[in-house]
Amino acid sequence: MTTRAARIEATLATAFAPAEIVVVDDSHRHAGHAGAAPRGETHYTVAVSSPAFAGMGRLARSRAVHALLDAEFKSGLHALALQLRAPGEG
């Protein structure tokens, strides 16, 4: 069985062919908060650097990631902290 972090990484890697991708499970930091589950795998920080983001605004990038991860949200993913950049962006 794969972890949610591995599924998120695989989904985003397939869609965006990133130069860099980092997925961190931050669920332990949200214990007791809304949407947190005792088993974790609910809150993540995701950083992606991809040429696919060139020319896209911040909102469009976020919407694209959320759309790709819709099944994960429907199965318990609660929140993402996104850092989405095109190569060369600060």
Task: Describe the protein's topology.
Blueprint: H1 4-16, E1 20-25, E2 43-49, H2 58-68, H3 70-74, E3 79-85
Parallel strand pairs: 2-3
Antiparallel strand pairs: 1-2
Query: How many domains is the backbone divided into?
Result: 1
Poorly predicted regions:
none
Q: Give me the number of helical elements.
A: 3
Which geometry do the CA atoms define? globular
**Number of strand segments:** 3
Mean pLDDT: 90
Structural class: alpha+beta
State the separation between the terminal residues, measured CA to CA. Answer: 36 Å
SSE pattern: HEEHHE
The major pleated sheet works out as: 3 strands, mixed
Level-2 CATH architecture: 2-Layer Sandwich
SS strand fraction: 15-25%
What do we call the CATH homologous superfamily? BolA-like
Q: What does this 3D model show about the protein?
A:
- This protein is of the alpha+beta class.
- It has a single domain, classed as GMP Synthetase, Chain A, domain 3, CATH 3.30.300.
- 32% of the residues lie in helices and 22% in strands.
- The protein has helices at residues 4-16, 58-68, 70-74, and strands spanning 20-25, 43-49, 79-85.
- It has a three-stranded mixed sheet with strand order 1-2-3.
- The radius of gyration is 13 Å and the shape is globular.
